[in-house]
Amino acid sequence: MTWARLSDDLVIAAVIIFAIAFCLYAVSLALHSAGKRGKSVTSSATRVGSPSSGGSGTGVNDLPAEPSHGYRLTTRIASVLVVMGFLLNVMAVVARGLAADRAPWGNMYEFAIVGAAAITGAYLAGLRRYPIERLGIWVVGVVLVALGCAVTILYTPVDALIPVLKSYWLAIHVGAAIIAGGAFTVAAVMSVVQLVGRGRNGERDALMERVSYGLIVFAFPIWTFAVIAGAVWAEAAWGRYWGWDPKETWAFITWVFYAAYLHAQSTAGWRGRRAAWFSVLGYLAFLFNFVGVNMWVGGLHSYAGV
Amino acid sequence: MTDEALEPSRTTYGAGWARWAWRTLTSMRTAVILLTLLAGAAVPGSLLPQRNVATNPGAVPSFYADHPGISPWLDRLSLFDVYASPWFAAIYILLLVSMIGCVLPRCVRLWGECRAEPARTPTRLSRMEHHRELRLESDAEEVLTRTATVLRRRGYRVVREGSEVRAEKGYLREAGNLMFHLSLLVLLVGVAGGKLFGFEGRAALVDGATFTNLRSSYDEYSPAALTRADAFTPFSVTLDKLEAEFELAGPRAGEPREFDAEVTYTLGDGTTGSTSIKPNHPMDVDGTKLFLTGHGYAPAVTVRDGTGETVFSGPVIFLPLENNFTSDGVVKVPNAEPTQLGFEGLFLPTAPTGDGDRSQFPGLIAPRLDLTAYTGDLGMNEGVPQSVYKLERSGLEEVAVGSLRVGETMALPEGAGSITFDGVSRFANFQIAYDPGKEISLVAAIALLIGLTASLVIRRRRLWLRVTKSDHGLTAELAGLSVTRRELPTSDLDHLERELLGLNESPERSMS
Ligand code: HEM
């Protein structure tokens, strides 16, 4: 079997594993809400008992005092499956790189599979420190959409690059952008949950906010680096480091929205829901850059096999 | 920097308003709003064609032609020139002023704090983060000394006072934050340097031709407001050979794979050498850079006039129209007798086997040159500059059309002359750029990244220890406070706690 073939098969395997994890997360949510209805008295009692924590302490959850055995079991299995899916996904990326003999992020198909790995990685990193498995279903959902688009509409066989992409800057610049993108994605999921919840669940919101803040603080310097590396590359390739090409412009817009997010976090009265909006806006700009600009706007940054 | 916009003071009316305006401008909330505006203002420039964003210089005129109603209005709002528009500049200038007003006072405060002692111990430590109490059996003096040593070793600035130790670290975070914001200013200086003193130009070179770095050699040249005439570093470059390769088969057949210009150069001091210029590998002569941005074909033709004289001979640049390099171009022969001659041509590097005027592949497999010949007046003596890629057809009469393979000749009717398709050369498009602010921008960008990382990674925090004597022995209270948004990590407190509890054990161990 060739590396290329192996990579394709690993992607399919990862999709299957993620799909099972998705179903299990759904089952666990069903079990959880059934359990909550049965124990609504206990659960509201716990919530009143512990004032919403904005500052310190370990993560809080809005689970009933005693999550049911079924809930815990399904969640655990789902999370283990996510780890397996992540490993398969990473192996698929590595195999693709070996097949193409270059950094495996040179076209939209490859962005999608590397992006899926980055999102899962960010989620797992968050999960190590915070009890966010109840959001697993959303994160895995996004990953499934990314991989699903990859294997259906974006699929491109392994191929060489057009000359302007032949540069080690491709590995550095796009690699950094994808890592930042993975963290931005999970942060955006948290912020959306926080916004959709309309502040009805203070403890969960505080947790969502801590996790998304942590992820953005991690991703923002990496994104900054990706933009700077892109400018250095543009200088080497086109003779100017910044030309307001649509891709550059949207990278800038993304960057400014996340800078606004970080400022909002330090502004009295803007923390919480208002700041969460900036996380969502920043993410929409990021997403538009990877999807919209490639498909509709064009410019100098055109990739093979869109 | 304050978070609340303050009410203007009534007493000193004018000064009060000024102070209020300044406070509002330099508040964090204004920063968030201005950043949002900046992001929003950048959007239209990516969706509408822009004048000085040159992927396609024809984009704005063709948008005008398609939307004649709305275009003048968009133009009046500078929407075809967003990044140089007054309103875009207004936003970023306000942002920078706000930033200076916000960051300079912090500089002053940081300077003060750097020399000041760590903050006083709060009376009620139990209100602080990660508060904990330890029962100790050792001597108060020993506990205090040990705490001071442990924290100093961990990089804290430590003060011992009475029965307390107070410590603080992470001052670099603020320094990083300042460095980050100030680098934004420096970055702007670098960008301005290029925008004010640099230039950009383009030149196309046929195989074997030489480019000399003079104003007149450029096909297109756009200097900045303050570009000096001596910005032309003296050098010349000869294109020896342009190589281009394309994918031959598979779904991506025809996609470019490799292209590469072999050149020989002569520098101002007389040194010569040869090198190759390819995508991502420009040639750099003292800050003037040559980039290979495109290539195409230059069919070589020989034109004889009615008297049998050879009046033109050589390659002519044809501009590619699409990815398979169907290209068009013109040949003008003003010195032909008895009448001037002009030709419009379409060149196909790989002509289809049957009919059709589209090239099938970008490589040179079956070249064909389709020509339309004109006689009459080329209109070149009227003093109006003409494009070398267009015929001014008003004074011309079409006399013949033909389709030539290499080596073939087309004779014009009425003995007006003939044209021979001799062969095909290639040409390379070079982008030539000079940007004197580039190094400043790069240094600023690196400083920005370092400052930003420091300000996000380093956590400024305070720790306190207080010992009190009681009947049971010694009680040590420990607590901390994170001065920044992020939670206080417990590792330092844990470490200190272990060290202090270790004091309990050591005497026992020595006794047994
Ligand atoms: C030019 C656009 C600006 C950009 C791109 C920018 C970016 C940033 C970033 C990324 C941070 C995050 C660092 C952190 O959270 O520690 C930050 C922090 C900060 N910025 Fe800005 N900033 C800009 C303008 C301003 C302005 C106009 C002000 C003041 C009105 C300001 C005041 C601050 C302050 C005080 C902090 C520290 C926040 C804290 O202590 O948590 N910045 N800035």
From TrEMBL, chain B:
This is Cytochrome c biosynthesis protein. The chain crosses the membrane at residues 31-48, 87-105, 178-197, 440-458. InterPro entries: Cyt_c_bgen_Ccs1/CcsB/ResB, ResB-like_domain. Pfam families: ResB. GO terms for cellular component: membrane. Keywords: Cytochrome c-type biogenesis, Membrane, Transmembrane, Transmembrane helix. It is found in: Membrane. It comes from the Bacteria. It comes from Aeromicrobium flavum. The keyword Transmembrane applies. It is a multi-pass membrane protein.
